[in-house]
Amino acid sequence: MLTGIREMEMTDIPEPVINNNNDVKIKMQAVGVCGSDVHYYTTGRIGSQVVKYPFPVGHEGAGYVTEVGSEVTRVKPGDRIAIDPAMSCFECDQCRAGRPHTCRNLRFLGCPGQSGGCLSEYIVMPENSCYPVDESMSFDEAAISEPLSIGVYAVKQSLDMKNVKAGILGFGPIGMSVMLAGKALGGKHFYVTDKIDQRLMEAGDHGAVWTGNPEKEDVVSAISGKEPELLDVVFECCGQQDALDQAFELLKPGGKLMIIGIPEFDRWSFSADAGRRKEICIQHVRRQNECVEPALEMISGGQVDVKDMVTHRFGFEDTKKAFDLVAGYEDGVMKAMIDFEIP
Length: 343
Ligand SMILES: [Zn+2]
Ligand SMILES: [Zn+2]
Prior knowledge:
By secondary structure, the chain is of the alpha/beta class. It has helices spanning about 35-45, 95, 140-155, 175-185, 195-205, 220-225, 240-250, 270-275, 290-300, 320-325; strands at about 1-5, 5-10, 25-30, 45, 50, 60-70, 80-85, 85, 105-110, 120-125, 130, 165-170, 190-195, 210, 230-235, 250-260, 280-285, 310-315, 335-340. The chain has 10 helices and 19 strands.
């Protein structure tokens, strides 16, 4: 449970119970530590979503089904599952319009005011959030389908990846998910920036055509030197104003800016003149919509290899250590996983 700014405690709570006929009880096996969890840990909020303590976070999870409600048909006890953290109502205007990710009554796992998270030995979720996976997929991989699905969704909302030149500014797990999904969907030209050199090495290993550290070089002139016509699409994956400024400079006229990063400040700014002259299209990305299943298929089909994303592993009791590591960007961390089988 988060208990204060940079404070976290192990707490005994009653085991959750099945309340609805479509509920599934899950014994957690793996939970990924997400940048958004760490925002709640270090600042107690993301924008208007404010933590009320004590609060359990975590939304990138996988585990075993232990019990199901009377009407559940998708899964049965013993099944291994990946979890889609979004619990939509399927009745409101957004849900009916095919946008359950912006459901008016959305309950999102580990989101303050909506639902407690999955950093817990057991949780209960509706069956619609449960995706069975087979033995060939590890629980780590199943849990990573959540951030990967955001990459898949961001890429699908952008441009046809074949023949486009793309920038990825910020190569944490989301930037990496964008590149892996973009490659799986036919992309070949990715220019990647990050302030951590180990992450740039990872990007190079996974086929980025160029990588650069904005703290050590002028990434705009380096990329525009290689691509004088500039980039078709830029994915902002770090929530930093300087990256947004670079994106405006890197985009060609008619280019598309995808904003995925979660900033710690309240307002973005950009040049009205540059935006207008280049007719830049700006698209925000809100988590993902209907992309957990494609993400799982990319992993099980071998089009995407997410194994390298996990750089650190901690037992459940050491969750705080994992959060401190990610909060401090220590040791070249990409994704830290909580593994419930580690004693
Ligand atoms: Zn996340
Ligand atoms: Zn809804």
